[in-house]
Amino acid sequence: VETAVKRVVNRIVNLPTLPQMVSTIVSLTGDSNCSIRDVTNAISMDPTISAKILKLVNSAFYGFPSQISNLSQAVVLLGLNTVRNVTLSASVFGTFQKNGNGDGKFDRTACLVHSSSVAFIARYLANKTSRQDSEEAFVGGLLHDIGKLILDTHLSREFIQAVELADAKGMVSTYDAEQEMLGVTHATIGRWLIERWKLPDSLGEAVGYHHAPDEAPGNPRFAALLCMANCMDHALSSSEDGIDPSRISPMALDLLGLEAAHVPGLLDAAREESEKANAFFSALDDAREASG
Ligand SMILES: [Fe+2]
Ligand SMILES: [Fe+2]
Questions:
Q1: Measured in angstroms, how far is the CA atom of residue 186 from the centroid of ligand 2?
Q2: How far is the CA of 255 from the centre of ligand 1 (A)?
Q3: How far apart are the CA of 208 and the centre of ligand 1, in A?
Q4: Nearest Cα to 142, choosing from 79, 192, 201, 206?
Q5: How high is the pLDDT of residue 290?
Q6: The pTM is what?
Q7: First-to-last CA distance in the chain?
Q8: Closest ligand to 190 CA?
Q9: What is the pLDDT of residues 195-252, one digit of tens each?
């Protein structure tokens, strides 16, 4: 196991860097004094992101009545938070969606669809419980499992073994299997990536502890919020004959000041969020849209 950890650490030196334009957008939109013009200028440097912003603003997801072809108008209509979320999402999806070294045993698209769903549910929970900044919650949800995509890219053989072990043992998550086989988990690797991208430490911590929120040293509630959003999306997607509320971590509920009695209502809302997330993901994803 120790050599496996060393291999992870060595290869993680090659972690993808956040494109400069994305860092610029993240820091500009985090500044309350930022101008629409600065943001528009930064986006216009990147034709891919510009095209995605225009595509999203003209998609059925927003349903604006007339065609919008002007980037600064699109930025105004979408708002700075959405512009940042689109920029980050498009960058993350663009980097990881293609199967790199992976042999395709791990379904990256399913992981990304799940991640956008968790982003929407986490934002909803943040608004509902007033426990966390809702846009930070969205980004946390988007990135919570990014460590899996890193593992599938850089340590694909070992990661697939962990996935298979988790399946064989009927584990709900690959988290324990990763710890057992690799000595490191996707949660920790996600935290490393967020540090490398110089996103807020609070975000890194929440991602790093989304499977063990009570161990988060700084803000266990943010980790609990991601834990809960993650559980809810799994509960929704694994339910054929109704949802099993016992899949929601009691510890996460407790940390968020919620009770088991709230779960059914929250799951109804989460289902709507997850549907919105799918529409958002499809609007950003050319391949999916092209294939209907
Ligand atoms: Fe996870
Ligand atoms: Fe997850």
A1: 10
A2: 18
A3: 9
A4: 206
A5: 41
A6: 0.88
A7: 44
A8: 1
A9: 888 888 999 999 999 999 999 999 999 999 999 999 999 988 876 656 666 778 889 9
